[in-house]
User: Fold these one by one.
Assistant:
Number 1:
Amino acid sequence: MRETSGRLLRLLALLQLPREWSGTELASRLGVTTRTVRRDVDRLRELGYPVRAAMGPIGGYRLGAGAELPPLLLDDDEAVAVTLSLRTSGSEAAQRALSKLSRVLPSRLRHRVAALEASTLALPVRGSSVDPAVLTAVSAAIRDASTVRFDYVDHFGGSSRRSVEPHRLVSWGRRWYVVGWDVSREDWRTFRADRLSLRTPNGPRFTHRPPPDGDLMAYLTRTMGREMWPLRCSLRVFAPASELEGRVEGEVTPIDSATCRLELASDSWDVVAFVAGMLDVAFEVETPPELAERLRVLSARYAAAT
């Protein structure tokens, strides 16, 4: 009986994936016959799980949506993964969910989770966590193609009111970002979700635009690293762009065959000075003057040390 119950749980986990499974595929995954698969599918239906079966050469089984779907079941690995994710999240909502989940974990899983917790270290999360209600409201606006209006606080503490056509929610590290078309600035922008305060009601409906750069992942790879940091600078580097590409986390733009522009972002001008020095090429500061002043201070300090 225990073997059957375990097999039903594995079958249910497979059916929850967003695809259709042939009886032969399920039998191979579970190590049983197709007849046993059909019998197990009937058992799941008796328990209230709406398993749909499509006939024909490309048909198969999948779990349908149903208003009376029984409580979600997790196998051992899934339960441990969910528990650890909640434990490291740090948000109040995650801790409430973890408390509920911990009360129903079997003893064997509590031991596994406790062992992992004892042997790992979770660094504290810097900054504010995002309100789940914000993520829910923005995701609904993306689905409904509805403009969102919000007050936004930037890296430097300045505030502004924005009207944005939201395109995607992005999880980057431990933060959430909203990528969208800024209506007043007529350009794509990325906003930290924990720094915006939604205003109601939403703005007008819109038609979704093609993703920026034609490829959202490429756009995020190019821009997100800079969006995360409050300090930005531009350096004129006296070396070909090809000599810098792949050596530094910054945006390199050729000026001519022997010169390029390097744009960096950081939370410290000292870090920028270190990175620029490690390149071992001549450069000059284009912007901002604060970086130039910091380099003068460091230059005097290093000269005194020699």
Note: The two ends are 79 Å apart (CA to CA).
Number 2:
Amino acid sequence: MNEMHSLLRLFSVPLRQRLATLPEQVIQEIQEIRVREERPLEIVWGQKYSFVAALSGLCEDPTLAYRPTREDCSTLLEMLTQHSLYTFDEELRRGYITVQGGHRIGLAGRAILEQGKVKHLKEITSFNIRVARELKGAGSHVLPFLVDTSSVSIHHTLIVSPPQQGKTTLIRDLARLISGGTASGSIYGLGRGLKVGIVDERSEIAACDRGVPRFDLGPRTDVLDGCPKAEGMMMMIRSMSPEVLIVDEIGRQEDAAAIHEAIHAGIRVIATAHGLHHGDVRRRPVLKELLDGEVFNRIVVLNKRAGAGTLEGVYDAKGDRMELAKPVESISEASLSRHDVKDSLLDWTGNAALRIGNYAKRGKEDANC
């Protein structure tokens, strides 16, 4: 099912009609829909930004774009909150709502404060609908770097990139591959599938519906949905005995404490964090503590030079760029059963990306990150 089509039900009839006129290629590549009251309706697709025309299709001139009305925005908010703002009070306080399918909708409006902290959002007039997609094979050219052959497990891994550049898509597919057993893992040296636990605080990784993941996370994956990361990691450790624990967007002190607990319990951790490159995340105190302590044996850096999700490089705990014994090319889902590879490395958007085999070991800092 096309992800965009599943979102159309949230919009008012005028918005739905105009979005439905977009070319099929654009619909397939939409990453964000920006709805701003009385301002041009904007979309992000591929590596482009465009406005949705008042009549049909796309336009580059904002004066020709459709401008959502107050009624359009009110309808969208009512659909997002299922006609009950009170029920979604916590989500409104955090500034986003995750809907069925793992799509995350950011909100902006007037903040209501209580003792200097945000208590609520009201007069919401800006919406950022981020389209979640399942892209099988996204982790196939990253997983070989992460396998710890000495323990037949996975290295502790931190995945770094700015927002909207493929981190969540990558860890979703890594969960599928790691838990998949000999059907996928044997290619990378795992030999068997590992028990994977996912703490999905924002309901984006698994897109659970009534507790059941709607994305394919593999046969040995358990999901704790809608739970704060730090508390969720401790719950997973106590209750589900995962061999690999996956969390998205760490950065708080309590996250670091929970990661240390997991590591001391013999559990391997894969986490993501916002940053331009591995040197950039060291500027954040909590992440600096983890990196200086060489908690993560692998640091994966993504960018969008050749499309969202382009692999910039993989680094070891000391910050040195990693190379495999042999160049590894992107492995498509169809080629997994044949144990062969393609002629050129592609990122998971299908764009030409940097070839891993040509990387040189450059030391701790890469000025071009």
Note: Residues 167-178 form the longest helix (12 residues).
Number 3:
Amino acid sequence: MKRIQFIQACAAALCLAASSASLAQGYPTKPIRLIVPFPAGGATDLFARTLSQKMGEKLGTTVVIDNKPGAGGAIGSDMAAKAPADGYTLLLATTSTHSIGPAINAKLPYDTVRDFTPIAHVGDAPSIMLVPNNSPAKTVREWIDYAKKNPGKLNYASSGNGTIVQLTAELFKSQAGVFVTHIPYKGTALAIPDLITGKVDVLFDSLPTGMPHVRDGRLRALGVTTLKPSPLAPELPPIADVLPGFESNTWFGLYGPKGLPADMVSRINTAANQSLSDPEVRDKLARLGIEPTTSTPAQLASMVAADAAKWKQIIIDRKITGD
């Protein structure tokens, strides 16, 4: 009896493997839905639209953007996690959804590791350290010295509690050993006017949204949050030159639901990497302030694990909440 059951189990497994292989071999046969868990018009959405067009060409189908914003990206991410693992629903995840979200919200309806299949790390958007033009500091070192001479008198703006903007500032405070008061806003766009007038002393804004104010002469940028100079703003020194190891990036990654067949993962990964190597795509992303990357699924999983651990520690150490 046991032998018969064993043979039946093996046969079922072989049938399932054959079915998956057959499905992947003809893939794709219809449009692919790419869920963007943030509103249309934002950096993540614009990135998705740039990438999806070229990916569709590589895959021989249409990649349709489906914006599902809300709850810091959790609503769209949950939809992707619960979709069939047939390759026709993908997710463009970010630092917010898969690195910070789990540490801020213990009640997420999905597990960022167990419920997703990593496909490719596709881009990074660094941040820049912005100060008013009337700030006495013209370098990162000068700003740290200024803050140390004025403990508790300076403040920093963020796009809200538990956001990458707040965490970047708290990481900076931790490494620099300074005491600066947090002022949360509902988005960095609302903080910019107060930064320009000097009501706010510093803001770690994303390069895409912050750099135009610098180039228009409204604000001063002291440094970039990448370990090395960013090709998107080569004139800015890395903050890591003063605070060794300081780094903060908003990453973008392609995921599928758990159980996505390996052949499909490979096909999508290849299409994404080829698209991100295209000069036209790279040029468009550069204008958005995003550095394109290419990776294997394993490299994405490893990067996100390390990033999530770093931000979780900052959240615990600095007692950060999403409230």
Note: The beta strands are 32-36, 63-67, 89-94, 116-132, 155-158, 181-184, 202-206, 219-224, 249-257, 291-292.
